[in-house]
Amino acid sequence: MVYLDYAATSPLDPEVLAIYNEMSLKHFANPSSLHKLGRASFALLQESRNIIAKTLNVKPEEIIFTASATEANNLGIKGLLPSKKKEIISTKIDHLSIYNTLLKLEGYIIKYVNVKEDGLIDLEHLKTLLNDNTLMLVTSLVNNELGTVQLQDELYKLCHTNNTYLFLDGVQALGKIRISNNYDLLSLSSHKIYGLKGVGCLINKTSKLLNPLIFGGGQERNQRSGTENFIANYCFAQSIRIAFDHFVERKNYVSKLYALLENNLKDNPFLHLNSFNSSNYIFNFSLLKHKGEVIFNYLNSKGYYLSTTSACSSYSKSFSRPVYETTKSEHLANNSIRVSLSHLTSEEDIKGFIETLLQSLKEVRTI
User: Fold this and answer.
1) CA-CA distance, 148 to 45, in Å (whole number)?
2) Is-catalytic flag, 235?
3) Exposed/middle/buried for 107, CB within 10 Å: 0-12, 13-18, 19+?
4) Residue 194 clears pLDDT 70, i.e. is over it
5) Please, which pLDDT band fits residue 315 given cuts at 50, 70 and 90?
6) Calpha distance 209→220 (Å, rounded)
């Protein structure tokens, strides 16, 4: 088995699992309880916040723990509403937790900024969209299908020149690229960096308390009620710590794997590469003369596990919005494959994948 779908989720780090087992047996009391055991749980929750704050250079009180990055994206968008400003800017290549949330908003004008062929936001077009009525620009710092890394500092400067918030989905960026402090809201996920599933957070630097999606006991400074999943939150903090402790070595290693893929596939007449300005953890290509689904199934039968689109959209037809918006080709969007890498991926894994992919292009009948 060769797993190449790390952008969908990652395996649990053994160190994190050990921490989870130890802490789960030692701490179980409700953090809101006033007795000694409850205070110990609350202290662990605060330690989680402090670890993340120190690692990401934010304030502990700016961190709101959630059950997922999807919830964090919903909270970040809806939490600033209602607003006198009625316009929100996004792109058509963003994750469904952004795209579909914006589609459901009533009473607000959603504007979509153009993206260029390389997946980067067209800054000149963005300038024409920003105005006094713009509440926020919300987009993914690293695109979950293409791997494109947006120009964060340039976006922040444009937004703040126009008194507009910049909200970044940082799920595919955390632990993989350097994230500057130039943002107002940032969503993160645990299970993409070898932590537990069902844990995420939103970093809110706006100085405003967000209107909650969930009402109850007023946890998370009244922004997200519900008994805190404090052990999972602590494990999330440890996952972030581990990722940053090994950031440089992992990034350099994965960059070599990405180069191996790119150098062996970029000139193949049966393939079209879709990833540019990539984080090096995501490599996307389309089949020019084969059905993506057929090649995907061939690779799967040989033990290579990857994806055709984002895992969050795999239940619908295998059509990649990011590929379509950057190429304007329905064929390329219908026949794309995403390879996502990790420090756990070996060079032999990639060489075997390349060999198997090239073999599939010979054996599988063209369209």
Assistant:
1) 34
2) no
3) exposed
4) yes
5) very low
6) 10
Three-state secondary structure along 188-227?
EECCCCCCCCCCEEEEECCCCCCCCCCCCCCHHHHCCCCC
Residue 269 has pLDDT above 60, yes or no: yes
Question: Which pLDDT does position 195 carry in this prediction?
Answer: 98
Where do the domains of the chain lie, and which CATH numbers do they carry? 2-9+247-363 (3.90.1150.10), 14-245 (3.40.640.10)
26: Cβ contacts below 8 Å, ≥ 6 apart:
none
Total H helices, total E strands in the chain:
13, 12
- Please answer whether residues 196 and 244 qualify as being in contact, where contact means their C-beta atoms are separated by less than 8 angstroms: no
The catalytic position among 159, 201, 235, 312 is: 312
SS3 content of the chain, % helix, strand, coil (to 5): 40, 15, 40
pLDDT at 310 over 80: no
CA dist 304 and 1 (Å) reads: 6
Against a cut of 0.90, is the pTM above it?
yes
Give the chain's radius of gyration (CA, Å).
21
CB 119 within 8 A of CB 146: yes
